[in-house]
Amino acid sequence: MITGKNQIGFNQSAQGSKTYHTINPKTNATNPTTFHEATQSEIDTACAKAKDAFTSYSKTTGTERAKFLRTIASEIEALGESLIQMYTTESALPEGRANGERGRTLGQLRMFADLVENDDWRNPTKTGENNGLRKALIPIGPIAVFGASNFPLAFSTAGGDTASALASGCPVIVKSHPMHSGTGEMIATAITKAAQSCDIPDGVFSNLNSSGIEVGEQLVKHPAIKAVGFTGSHKGGRALFNLAAKRDSPIPVFAEMGSINPVIITTKAIKKRGAELAETYAGSITMGAGQFCTNPGLILTVVSDETTAFVQDLADKTAALDAQCMLGPNIVKTYVKNTQEMQSQEGLKIVATTQNASGDNMAQAQIATVSGKHFLKNSTLQQEVFGPFSLVVQSQDTDELLKIIHTLEGQLTATLIAEDEELNELQEITTGLQEKVGRIIFNGVPTGVAVEDAMTHGGPYPASTDSRFTAVGNHSILRWVRPFSFQDFPEALLPEYLK
Amino acid sequence: MITGKNQIGFNQSAQGSKTYHTINPKTNATNPTTFHEATQSEIDTACAKAKDAFTSYSKTTGTERAKFLRTIASEIEALGESLIQMYTTESALPEGRANGERGRTLGQLRMFADLVENDDWRNPTKTGENNGLRKALIPIGPIAVFGASNFPLAFSTAGGDTASALASGCPVIVKSHPMHSGTGEMIATAITKAAQSCDIPDGVFSNLNSSGIEVGEQLVKHPAIKAVGFTGSHKGGRALFNLAAKRDSPIPVFAEMGSINPVIITTKAIKKRGAELAETYAGSITMGAGQFCTNPGLILTVVSDETTAFVQDLADKTAALDAQCMLGPNIVKTYVKNTQEMQSQEGLKIVATTQNASGDNMAQAQIATVSGKHFLKNSTLQQEVFGPFSLVVQSQDTDELLKIIHTLEGQLTATLIAEDEELNELQEITTGLQEKVGRIIFNGVPTGVAVEDAMTHGGPYPASTDSRFTAVGNHSILRWVRPFSFQDFPEALLPEYLK
């Protein structure tokens, strides 16, 4: 069923001699399919097709695109258990997670179908006398989408970036993630089937295999590509951003690059419900082996006897949890390297490490502590450690805590754990956090990103490359559209939604 | 009244030894005020003040900001004739234009006051159970604004960029344009008076003098600056875009960089109303000495006897017009250099040149022609010549015309001059143009940008650095804001507009 070929519009293609395999992280066994990395000529063909297809696809009705998106969802559902099996084989993520993520992916596709079924999302605006000025949002052109290692479905081939771009009328070329190219191919086949059965033009969707960075680089540099969607590391996102900015004709890159998601826990909250918080946070830190961009990597406290006891409790509860399999050997290697780098920082102490477990690619969760003073003078302590790691900063007082908040880099989220009666004293902290993040949570955990209109998944750099957009929810379509005005235009030449 | 000092928040400052003067383009006489270019320390102070002020200014109510904007308008009005005199002395633009531009500037300030008086512009969104998720647009941080040489008021110190940024809750630091720093200082003083009388925090507005590129570069590189608004040349806009992209923490740059604004005139339209069109376009090409970013620099026709006669008529009517004074010696020098470069291109013929006139900085308007074949193989012919210059391309047929449209770079506008009965045949041309521009006009002229909600002033690169935004109209506020979500937040800590 899986061919290892690139999907170039309606054609499958395997011209290249550079091949690779995905592996099963649980066993490090090589999965059977040989994937053919896309050649320059295949990249060019996909881009030329996308450019040609854009002219007609950008003019399709909302009803046509809604049908296409719903058919993609049905075709993905029709893949049934074989998709779940491929997903778990390539990611080592549990079946429950695979099912949940598939549900989220289908939900997103149908959400965007509902959105574009009528043209309100275009914000049609009419001003001026007679025909005067008529404005609406129109698609920007072909989009290159880079899937995430940690979300083989919801943030990959048919994930939020692809769904929102296709909904807006933009063709999509996916650079398949080398760690789950089999899952990617299955989804690409479903999208292609849907396109064919819905009379969507050849070239509106392509899926290119790639084992390294070259295919992605060529895509971002290609003149036909008009914007980029990326979910992944800061290093990867920034590299693509730099490439896009250096083009003769620069293009926008929306890269969601994760963050350390600071959690402020007040001493009062610790006194009142320390044990419960320790349990909740041991769970949030280690959930999915910590492989979430909203993983709480930084816990900010003020020193007290209760805080010390809480940290011990959090450490004990984390250490008692089972080690988990990560997404692959490179992810584990980087995690170990990053935790070792942390350990060598002045003043940092590891207070919890889960037991190692037999099996490949297992990650030991770690809790570390550091004083506010050390944290303030060492920006390395702000670097994200992708995995089940969290650093507890013990400030000497609220002033130092505030200083720390003011030195934080941009973040996807911040969380405030406090008692209601403290709210008045917390205004300055809330304001300080607001300037740094895209979403602030009260008495909860940052993990879990609801697909809702009121969600912001993004934030000031380096959480994302452009804080003016969200990667999740209906408003994420705004990344791929631009305003366009008709002036004194005859009714007959106006699109339906401006008549 | 004019001091030549920098306005740094509420203080005037002239620490630097680097000074300059503006000149009167009509006479090349040096105007009396000695302007002190901002020093690095003054830039740093302005940025530090803006950063501090942001925390409280971002939390002001819409009513407070509306009052501030309206007071700025009143203070500018109170400057009376002295402002008009300064404007005409520094720009050589006629008094009627000065009055018109002042009216536009006041109108924009009041339009944004009306917009933010209630919080609908924030698009407040609530989803989820209980307090769930609540999202709204919030200001992004201090904005650096670069004024335009050709709009000393409406696109400069208190122009659209400043008005929209202040309306959103962002502090503004203006890099004063060296050609009209006196006009800039008068406006800066009006804004400062308004800030003081409206209890707006010190640092929400600063105005920095600059004779070259250094002050602007330092501003764009400063960590406190969170976005940039620019109106001017491609060279200048791209340089700032590159600087912003190279920052440790990149920031968005909205640069509106002009374009050649292609005008397609059909042979039928020429047959029907050639004489009228020649007169209209001779006027549009030379209006304001062609110093508009929407100046029609490219006229696309299909060869015929009627077209040849029309071009001759357009040439005669243009040649008969008076030469006009441009904005300054550097502008004229560049104009002459660019027209000379055009003249040396293969196949290009100059068919009209207005008589030279006595006086300094006078520009002779020029009409040139070239064949479609020559245009297609020479991208230099697509370069903007800022001034009263227009190139008429004579295609051999509609296919060649379409090919030309497909090779065009991004543009602010395109104009279609045609008869109603041709509309059906023009679908392909309209579609082709739509992919290249931000606004398309039917049977009109591109010059004249109405300040209306349905206006798009922007377009695909190189017309602007980000086609997803407009520089004119209420929606231009979207350049300076980002979505922000509160999750499970207690009512007491939510801003009023999310309660």
Automatic annotation (TrEMBL), chains A, B:
The keyword Oxidoreductase applies. Keywords: Oxidoreductase. InterPro entries: Ald_DH/histidinol_DH, Ald_DH_C, Ald_DH_N, Aldehyde_DH_dom, Aldehyde_DH_Superfamily, ALDH_KGSADH. It comes from the Bacteria. One of its GO terms (molecular function) is oxidoreductase activity, acting on the aldehyde or oxo group of donors, NAD or NADP as acceptor. Residues 1-33 are annotated as: Disordered. Residues 15-459 form the Aldehyde dehydrogenase domain. The keyword Disulfide bond does not apply. SUPFAM superfamilies: ALDH-like. PANTHER family: ALDEHYDE DEHYDROGENASE-RELATED (PTHR43353:SF3), SUCCINATE-SEMIALDEHYDE DEHYDROGENASE, MITOCHONDRIAL (PTHR43353). This is Aldehyde dehydrogenase (NADP(+)). The lineage of its organism: Bacteria, Pseudomonadati, Bacteroidota, Flavobacteriia, Flavobacteriales.
